[in-house]
Amino acid sequence: MSRPKIGAAAAISQLSGWSAAPDSAPHRDAIVKTFKFADFNAAFGFMTRVALMADKLDHHPEWFNVYNRVEVLLTTHDADGVTELDLALAKFMDEAVA
Length: 98
Known about the structure:
Helix content is 38%, strand content 19%. By secondary structure, the chain is α+β, with helices and mostly antiparallel strands. Helix 2 packs antiparallel against helix 3. It is globular.
């Protein structure tokens, strides 16, 4: 089921610390953020909490983890861009680190 796009600009206007994906990113209409934690355990705990929510939303992030850093790219593939689903998951991620 395709969802209506809201676009990266609309999403980041409602978020803190997120930015539009650079043109070199695999998906141009996407939002990105890097989260840094005290150590690997904290980073992995964050990823676990997000994974459980992502499964509930049936929407999964593209992410990369090295030790205490988690780089996230959000886009809705079937919409070919950022949707409310990406916004919801980004807000959850921000709350999960607060």
